[in-house]
Specification:
about 35% helix; 13 strands; 11 helices; alpha/beta; Nucleotidyltransferase, domain 5
């Protein structure tokens, strides 16, 4: 029998609530070995999440796992808190790209973008196949992900770059890797490589900055925070150079040191004295059962 893996969440969208419920059950009872009805819970919510998704997730957490209270934290705000900021531009690169301007701990809704950019490992897989390597099984695709995390990087001038690195497979075979390593993340600057309709990432960031009020534009541009699993070596320098070609105002970019920056930021928010449970920011089990619409009515924790 061959086991088939599934991914209940794709690009921040929950596609299989039954599978997600099983994962949550496993995490509570097998990994953490705790009764969820005894513990308030903090969850991260990506930008532009559908109201129906929040409602369904809250239904599962309250009605199936019987949690006592829930705190919903915006991912971009959490990223900025991890960086020690209340205002800035969160650029999160995972399997998709999210750009979120935040001012005084509040996302600026008209500037939020979710782009069809991302998936360096998937593009690397395509390039490796073009070079004659065959990766087809789930385990082999995990190897490609490992190659991305350990060897891929972003360059300033890909047309002038040369590269040769080796990667030893579990069976001892050695792969010789060349331009695939810096061309895979190039998709962020040449979206046509993956047939994306998005503009290059630097252009999308610049467009977002230009949508902001002039009174806060330079403040936000001076606090661009890169986060997510696809922030590779060289990304910060390349983005800064490309944005500075477009902008007439100063740009400063910082890169999160941890891939778990949003988790760290949400944990920090949860223990702030004025946010700690119980406070007005939490949705309690009693409030939920009295009025399920309360999941949309609570103020954002800041």
């Amino acid at each position: 029998m061959v086991l088939k893996g599934s991914y209940p969440i794709v690009d921040d969208v929950i596609e299989d609530y039954v599978a997600l419920e099983k994962i949550i059950h496993y995490l509570f009872y097998n990994e953490m070995r705790m009764d969820p009805s005894d513990h308030p819970l903090i969850i991260l919510e990506p930008p532009l999440t559908a109201r129906t998704q929040r409602e369904k997730l809250c239904e599962i957490l309250f009605e199936i796992f019987n949690i006592p209270a829930l705190l919903i934290v915006d991912t971009a705000v959490a990223d900025l808190v991890c960086a020690g900021e209340k205002s800035g531009l969160d650029v999160r690169l995972d399997t998709s790209a999210n750009i979120v301007p935040v001012y005084d701990s509040m996302p600026i809704s008209h500037g939020i973008k979710r782009l069809s950019l991302g998936g360096v490992a998937q593009h690397l897989l395509k390039l490796l196949r073009g070079a004659g390597y065959r990766f087809t099984t789930s385990a082999e695709k995990l190897i490609v992900k490992d190659i991305k995390e350990k060897l891929c990087y972003v360059v300033l001038e890909p047309e002038k770059e040369t590269c040769e690195k080796t990667y030893v497979l579990p069976d001892g075979e050695t792969l010789i890797l060349r331009k695939e390593l810096f061309m895979a993340p190039e998709l962020y600057f040449k979206p046509g490589l993956i047939d994306s309709e998005s503009k290059p990432l630097d252009v999308e960031i610049y467009d977002t900055l230009m949508k902001l009020d002039e009174s806060i534009r330079e403040l936000i541009a001076g606090k661009i925070i890169l986060s997510g699993s696809e922030i590779l070596p060289g990304m910060k320098d390349r983005l800064k150079r490309e944005i500075e070609k477009l902008a007439t105002f100063p740009v400063k970019i910082r890169q999160q040191e941890s891939p778990y920056s949003a988790w760290i930021g949400a944990s920090t928010i949860g223990v702030l004295k004025h946010v700690q449970y119980p406070s007005k920011y939490w949705i309690t089990r009693k409030e939920y059962y009295e009025n399920p619409a309360i999941v949309h009515a609570k103020p954002s924790p800041t």
